[in-house]
């Protein structure tokens, strides 16, 4: 009985691995157990950050994570981490335990001590994720966020906190609608963000041709252009088609597939591996 179970398990595992290999990519491993749980020691701090949005002519709010031992005597790299269509500035804390993932990685010396900014990527006056999330106005607000991020939020962060301001010290990552924003905004701005992480990009992602066109107009490339997706995600073709086109054109990028769907279970794992890579020599 036990042997039959084990054989079944190994067969299933083999199928999973071969389905990942067929896509020509290495599977992302699973983060070690407890990676998203607070160990209770060396905790960073979460605050809110109010900033004036010149796009909306009003005050907006983002959340900010400062790493354990944050001191204005040092300068820190900054990761901007974006949510999906039903999310807001709280999502990566409530659903993604991003602060605990970062606490653990930084405590273990696996990630650079960094500041993480959690913006609200819906750049409109009422930015709550209520009502029809797919309304024309709400979808447009995800696009408008580019101006809010670059023109208002970034300068506000850099004025208020002790951060490095070179592109090599700025990363932009996000899930789903946030991943679309990462590719759309990030690929046009390697001078601003050297590290991009697009986890399960949504249909707001510009076409492969448009993205390459945006990238080709720049003088430089990102240090890391990461695209990932779950194998059971119905949006997988969005990631897959960008990956295939980039590969055809020899545009340097990483493509990671893992078991799972379109949810924070997967995105937490993405964040774990992505956070370990950024702000380090490549
Ligand atoms: C869509 C399906 C999913 C879409 C957006 C999403 C704009 C976004 C999902 C998410 O952010 O989780 O057709 O169109």
Automatic annotation (TrEMBL):
Matching entries from SUPFAM superfamilies are given as:
alpha/beta-Hydrolases
Annotated GO MF terms: acyltransferase activity, transferring groups other than amino-acyl groups
Q: What domain of life is recorded for the organism?
A: Bacteria
Protein's name according to its UniProt entry: Enterochelin esterase
């Amino acid at each position: 009985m036990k042997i039959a179970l084990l054989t079944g398990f190994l067969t299933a595992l083999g199928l999973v691995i071969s389905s990942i290999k067929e896509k020509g990519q290495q599977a992302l491993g699973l983060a070690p157990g407890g990676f998203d749980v607070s160990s209770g020691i060396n905790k960073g701090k979460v605050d809110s950050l109010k900033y004036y949005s010149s796009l909306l002519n009003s005050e907006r709010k983002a959340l900010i994570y400062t790493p354990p031992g944050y001191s204005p005597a040092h300068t820190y790299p900054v990761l901007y981490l974006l949510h999906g269509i039903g999310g807001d500035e709280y999502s990566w804390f409530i659903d993604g335990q991003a602060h605990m993932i970062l606490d653990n990685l930084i405590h273990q010396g696996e990630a650079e001590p960094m500041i993480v900014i959690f913006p609200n990527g819906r750049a409109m006056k009422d930015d709550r994720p209520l009502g029809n999330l797919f309304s024309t106005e709400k979808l447009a607000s995800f696009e408008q966020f580019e101006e809010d991020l670059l023109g208002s939020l970034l300068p506000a962060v850099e004025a208020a906190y002790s951060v490095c301001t070179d592109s090599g010290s700025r990363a932009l990552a996000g899930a789903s609608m946030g991943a679309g924003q990462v590719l759309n905004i990030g690929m046009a701005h390697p001078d601003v963000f050297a590290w991009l992480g697009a986890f399960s990009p949504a249909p707001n992602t510009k076409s492969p041709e448009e993205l390459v066109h945006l990238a080709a107009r720049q003088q430089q490339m990102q240090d890391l252009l990461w695209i990932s997706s779950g194998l059971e995600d119905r949006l997988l073709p969005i990631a897959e088609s960008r990956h295939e086109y980039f590969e055809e054109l020899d545009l340097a990028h990483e493509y990671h597939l893992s078991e799972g769907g379109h949810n924070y279970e997967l995105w937490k794992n993405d964040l774990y591996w992505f956070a370990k890579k950024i702000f380090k020599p490549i």
